Amino acid sequence: MTGVPDVSPRATWQELAQDQDAMLVDVRTDAEWNFVGVPDLSSVGKQTVLIPWQLYPSMQVNGAFTEHLHRAGATPETKLYFICRSGARSLAAGQAAQAAGFPHAFNVADGFEGPVDAEGHRGAIAGWKADGLPWRQR
């Protein structure tokens, strides 16, 4: 595989439901998980794996990121779907995962909240929430 392909939130949801080993890795910060919410995978018998790509508040890259993937049970065969707010950090996380020996890394296009709308708000145009996929407050 070359590069980290973008996958729509709905296609990600279908893959997570069909492949019992596929994982959704939310790479946002703990502040975002707590205040914005997280994807809810309980209806497909899973939990979202929470591993920050950058550490709040310094926003330095998490040097133990791939170690955390191993601890979460990821293997080189695991399909890993990375999600962040809008798709940028998750792309970087997917690239790091591929470089660390996880070739099946995917970027959830438009992330959890997607781009801002005309009023400057996220969550309405595109992304996990806008697509009506399950999520919950943490």
Automatic annotation (TrEMBL):
This chain belongs to which protein, by name?
Sulfurtransferase
Q: Which GO terms label this protein's molecular function in UniProt? A: transferase activity
**Keywords, sorted A to Z:** Transferase
Residues of the Rhodanese domain: 18-124
What InterPro entries does the record point to?
A: Rhodanese-like_dom, Rhodanese-like_dom_sf, STR4-like
Source organism of this protein record: Falsiroseomonas bella
Q: Which Pfam families match?
A: Rhodanese (PF00581)
